[in-house]
Amino acid sequence: MTVERTVSTAALDDEDHRNGLSIQVAASAADSSSTREREVIAAFSEITTEAITDAKLEDLLCLVGQKLCQLMGVTRCSLYLRHAGGKYRGAAGYCEETGNISEAVKRQESGFADDLFSQEVISTKQPVVIHDALNDPRPHHRTMAHWDVRAMLGVPLIFDDEVIGLIFVDTRGREHRYTDEDIEVARLFARLSALFISQAMLNARLRGQAAEIARNNATLAYLGDVHHKLTSAVLEGADITTVVRLLSELSAKPVVLYNNNFEVLTWAAPPALAFDAPPVLTEKVRAMPSVRQTLSELSVSTPSAVVPASLAVGLGRRHLLCRMVIEGTPSGFLGIVEVGRSLEPIDANIAERGAMVLALQMLSERRQIETEGQARDDYLSDLLRNSRDKEHLVRRGPQFGIDLSIPHVLIRFSVDDAPGKLSASATQNLVTRTFQDVLGIPAPPAVRLPGAVIVLIPLTTGDNAEIEALRQQVTAVRDRLSGQLALGATIISSACHTSVDYPHAHRELREIGSIARSFDWHSRILTLDELGLFRVVISSGHVKEAVHFAHTFVRAVRDHDDGTLLETWRAFVAAEGKAQATAVALGVHENTIRYRLGKIKEITQKDPTGLDSLLSARMAFQVLDLAGE
């Protein structure tokens, strides 16, 4: 009995001892768990204080990473946040050795196709442990090797049952064993962190929106000031060059105004840049497919675009181009060049507003020019029709750049009015612009009439030599126009010295223009002075009779001509009845001329040296020449 009692007592004592150890272990575990929870709460106390101060999102995330490292006994933590499109991009990071590593983490991305580790954390919404990062197939091995990761724990940041971010912890270059308690602490920490982080993200978005609203308000205020300056300048009488100069000042960059062919109309640049020529888009640059595509896409809905720099074709600067449209028609480009300062979004607004103001100004100037041109055309019509008194015409002339105190000539271009040709105004403008280019004078007054354009050209003396010199210039004008207009005869009037000369000259031009069509003078340039007595015939309306007279007058000599008589008779008339001059012209002896004149007298029964015969012969030969016979 004693032995049994002793054994029983010993057994009871041993059981009590084991129970005591279990109670101690449980108590120790409870104390440890309680301690970790208190550490988590203490860590979040600091994070809460930081969050309350409205700290930057990056600073708050960096603090979260630091506290988690301390709780987990690891040395590195990186945090990723979900962005639009579902991508998870690096947001912040902490390393015990170097501190804030956010800039390096921001260059990283998680959850992509080859990152099965992150995808598992996202899809399961649970912590995931990698014990051997270099051999486990789930992580992206190149990233693991770059960051020297051996073991890693990934924990989702969950808010409103959605993964808004990811937390990764590891100890750089060393193994680390993550216990179940570590994982639970990380899960708890991530859950609490998600609350603060989601609020911080919301605050960051609100601050960003507020800042964007403030920037937009500032931009609107600035653009309002830009618009006010531009419109005020125009209202004060600023021309296009002044407006372009103002745009250059507002943008602090060179500004170039082009026409549709990219010819520079005007330009300006800040004086500090010391430009002596505009920075333009060359034809070589515009021929690039990318540039052609950019230019072709400019429209009302896409008013501006940037042509990127391309050193391969010599384009070292970016060009912001804005399409100018006037009355629905493309009318040029406004360019701002990236020199001195970088192009900014505000430059596009400046260019678009500037292009609008310039388009309106150009439209206004065009309307004014058209109005003034119409008034000048009306004045010239009055001058040609003699529908106003002389004093009125002389007084109003200087208003249109016409000084009737100096001589002028009228030049009549016969023009085909067939359908499909240029409009009347376009034809008139083409003719006057060509005169401007060839003669180097301002665009001359002109009027478009049915079948013709009449141009008024000032002279210096009005003598025959000056008109003959002008005839050579008119030939150059006609050569340029011949490829663009269907031209008939071109006729130059005699010099007009008084207002009453113009209606008479215009009437003669019209009458000779009509005769020119009959004689098929479509390629000739005539002066009224060279027509001589034929002008009288034309004015009488007996052109057919004049041609019949000419043929009858020379028929007898022509019928008996041996090839020399008619030639001699023409030369004798051209030499004004002088035998010696005729001999020199034909290269024969003077007696030969007298012999031939005798034969002509014998055939015609008229003395070719007589004044009456000379006048008749002159008229006959001139008619035949003009008739092309």
From TrEMBL:
PANTHER family: CARBOHYDRATE DIACID REGULATOR, DNA-BINDING TRANSCRIPTIONAL ACTIVATOR ADER. Gene3D superfamilies: 3.30.450.40, PucR C-terminal helix-turn-helix domain. This is PucR-like helix-turn-helix protein. Belongs to the CdaR family. Residues 56-207 form the GAF domain. It comes from the Bacteria. InterPro entries: CdaR-like_regulators, CdaR_GGDEF, GAF, GAF-like_dom_sf, PucR_C-HTH_dom, PucR_C-HTH_sf. It comes from Williamsia limnetica.
